[in-house]
Amino acid sequence: MTTTPSRQRDTVLQASELVRSYGEGETAVTAVAGVSLAFHTGEFTAIMGPSGSGKSTLMNLLAGLDTPTSGRVLVEGRDLSRLTDRELARLRRERVGFVFQSFNLLPALTAEQNILLPLRLSGQRPDRAHLDEVVASLRIGDRLAHRPPELSGGQQQRVAVARALLTRPAVLFADEPTGALDVTSGRELLEHLRSASTELGRTIVMVTHDPVAATYADRVLTMSDGLLRDSLERPTTNEVLTAMARTETRC
Ligand SMILES: Nc1ncnc2c1ncn2[C@@H]1O[C@H](COP(=O)(O)OP(=O)(O)OP(=O)(O)O)[C@@H](O)[C@H]1O
Ligand SMILES: [Mg+2]
Description:
By secondary structure, this protein is an alpha/beta fold. It has helices at 55-62, 85-94, 111-121, 128-137, 153-165, 183-198, 211-214, 237-250, and strands at residues 11-22, 29-40, 44-48, 70-75, 78-79, 96-100, 171-175, 203-207, 219-224, 227-233. The protein has a single domain (11-250), classed as Rossmann fold. It has 8 helices and 10 strands. The strands form 2 sheets. It has a 6-stranded mixed sheet with strand order 6-7-8-3-9-10, sandwiched between helices. Strands 2-1-4-5 form a 4-stranded antiparallel sheet, with helices on one face. The radius of gyration is 18 Å and the shape is globular. The structure holds adenosine-5'-triphosphate (ATP) and magnesium ion. Magnesium ion binds at residues 55-56.
């Protein structure tokens, strides 16, 4: 695959020759089979591909949640393989944000307490103006005193996005963030991710199965068999569908 960055911007995240294999011998599986790529500040990237193509594995490697069999990942120029466990834990807490399909909020805490939790865990004082900005942009200002079970799925996911954004992460990772939402809440969430990239300048890497969701991104990467296949700049839904069809014929 060839990657042609459309704009000259800072590289915030870089992977070179990433490989992740599981098991040995006949039962060995190579989930990521040699991936090199770069993400630029403020860029919104979607990763698509058939089930089992290695999307989540790649994302976990990029986020420092998993260790590659070979190859390396640089987050803001720091090689993850050279960090101590403590440094890596800190980087994950402070420089990387996560949003999962299943929200992962703590039900006993209010929305605001959930949002502030990562900052509290790293002993930082919340910046009230930044909290207000993030909460306003996600339109959850009137839900902050509620606990997750009192919120809709869309609201819960927006709380999860606020929590991930509040530390001003270098990269926000989202693995199928709209997977548990209805179409309308899903589109709304994508608009919020889009504006986190455009207005707050956040770098976003999102895995999705939904070709329409992918069109909210600046760039869509497709994967099959642990390798990157296509890189599309601001594609239409039809272009995404065509690229997806190419990955499926390879499987
Ligand atoms: N811990 C593990 N041990 C063994 N094999 C694994 C492990 N995690 C993932 N795999 C395998 O690696 C491959 C890629 O998995 P991965 O979860 O990255 O796929 P995916 O593209 O995210 O799929 P989906 O769209 O279904 O979420 C699959 O064949 C999977 O079975
Ligand atoms: Mg996955």
